[in-house]
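Subject: Interface between my chains keeps coming out wrong

I've been trying for a while to get a sensible model of this assembly. When I model each chain on its own everything looks fine, but I need the whole thing in one frame so I can look at the contacts. Pasting all components below, labels as-is. Any help appreciated, I'm running out of ideas.
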Amino acid sequence: MNDETNKIAPNNDENIAMSDEQQTIQNITDQDYKYGFVTDIEMEEFPKGLDENIVRMISAKKEEPEFMTEWRLKAYRHWRKQKEPKWPKLKYSEVDYENLYYYAAPKKDGPKSLDEVDPELLATFEKLGVPLEERELLAGVAVDAVIDSVSVATTFKGKLGELGIIFCPISEAIQEHPELVKKYLGTVVPYTDNFYATLNSAVFSDGSFVYIPPGVRCPMELSSYFRINASKTGQFERTLIVADKGSYVSYLEGCTAPMRDENQLHAAVVELIALDDAEIKYSTVQNWYAGNKEGVGGIFNFVTKRGLCGGKNSKISWTQVETGSAITWKYPSCILKGDNSIGEFYSVALTNNYQQADTGTKMIHLGKNTRSLIISKGISAGKSNNAYRGLVKVNSKAENARNYSQCDSLLIGDQCGAHTYPYLEIENPTAQVEHEATTSKVSEDQIFYLNQRGISTEDAVGMIVSGYAKEVFQQLPMEFAVEAQALMSVSLEGSVG
Amino acid sequence: MLSIKNLQVSVEEKPILKGLNLEVKPGEIHAIMGPNGSGKSTLAHVLSGREGYSVDAGSAHYKGLNLLEMAPEIRAREGMFLAFQYPIEIPGVNNTSFLKKALNEIRKHRGEEELDAIDFLGLIKKQMKLVEMKEELLKRPVNQGFSGGEKKRNEILQMAVLNPMLAILDETDSGLDIDALRIVAGGVNKLRSAENAFVVITHYQRLLDYIVPDFVHVLSDGQIIKSGTKELALELEERGYDWLIEEAESKA
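Reply #2:
Try treating it as a single job with all components included. I did that and got this:
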């Protein structure tokens, strides 16, 4: 989030902790991370720590044009002047930025086709259920798979190429489409934006680039799976999606990570740009390793995601299902600059055990007749803490802006917390802004009712939670919705005694 | 089918059931009547496995199985059904998919094949006619936005779909107008067979005009103080419970 929100005192801090629930609803216990395995691939690592040399080395390694190297260096110098933000409702041991590796990639040169891809890597994707081979053709999904920073395989390029769509690793885009990258990179999230985004700008390793030409409707869901693999490797993904005039694209991002004992830093940046009459739908299912039951390990996920509705009648819709990470710090936002533009944010954030999430959105209304919708569903279990933090800002020139926000919290057990921090900054009297918030809990009565119909307690909790989050799941593409619902049950296994 | 012997149950150390005995055989309908606070709902909850009740003595067997040691979902899968006095709302969970899940859990337990969506829809539409329920209610979340009468009909619809061996109806008549009562009772009557049994818990005799019981038991202060046939219910309608309670006390 921008600095501006740091200064504003929360106008609503509900600290809700449940107490005295009966014994059927108990603490989270036994769920082990199902995707906790490590791929044994030789890694090429740079020395630990960060200085200008490392930044230059990353840029050189990727054979980047000079403008990129310079941009990275400017970011690096700016980052040295910045301090880690302390305003989120998060507690964690300090990250030692000098003790991290800032670049890691499989040693071999990039493969030309799937045949050249390390079979072990393919086996890993198999285990994760990532459709990387022929199955993806049937599923209609093009995958730009990223393992630790370097894209290993990109498919469907030809098919998309016929339509003029560019979908490739951002490292490739920097080399092959420097004019597009130069034009748009950092225009929504400038390298000065915030501590994590600035760090990302300096050291980002790879990510996805999408460009949809004017009037083109992307015929398939674009999808990218991310994965942290090398121990102590900061993961700095950078994604840039540009939808030119009158185009449409739906992009899916999903992630799982192997089990690790040490905390791992993840600081991604995603920028979306929608020009006149364009629409971008960005969906995320996030399941990074959350740490064990005692709160040891897990990913620190500090992500900056922002979309610019730059053109008139443009639309950006964020949908996120966040079930993983030890720490989630993430506010996918929309800048509604074009007249009549629309921003949407649908979120399910589930925390269990000792997980902490501080997540929400910012809707910045600049253009006339702009509209935004916020549907946030927090689910807290175990000893976790879940905060919604959102800003609705209506600029003085944004005539007839409309916002509707609904922020619900669901509590499972009596040791978790839910918090809501809605910030409103309204500078135009024609604005109509509505905010609704509810807090509920999974009741023993509901569980017993389902039990009495033959449904096990775990299935019952899964059903109740899925029902609660239905409005958000409905926004996900079908195959993702199924995966997300399964993740809910997996993440809550053992949460009810 | 159901055999309860000297069942003693307390809630937070307060005794509620104080030595209850009951035998239910296949094909029978037993009515349990009694004044408020006599332990009727406690009996329904203990039999179906609700937490928060402490069984201090006695036993309850169902089809020869030790009921009190079984998880509530296992009791359900073994063919026990409780029609709730206050059916619970589950927001966002579709009524049809909930019921399909429930039926398939029971079928799996029995080693039967699960029903697919088409077969299930055929079954539910047929059973809906028993309770004259609007099809629209299938698309809604479980019990959400249902009127009191619709909730009770939804309970009977669930019973009709799940086809239990032993159904316990906990004050199903409460809050129902006479037309709804007739529909609900009609549903029960169509479901009764020589194989299944019903325990009908009610405060008033009027339900028993429509669901005719084989046996009527009067529960008072945690014990069955009198058992008889349907004539007993009529007598209770006329004379109330007090004379029976006094009679029981004078015997004790």
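Reply #3:
Confirming on my end. The first helix of chain A runs from residue 3 to 6.
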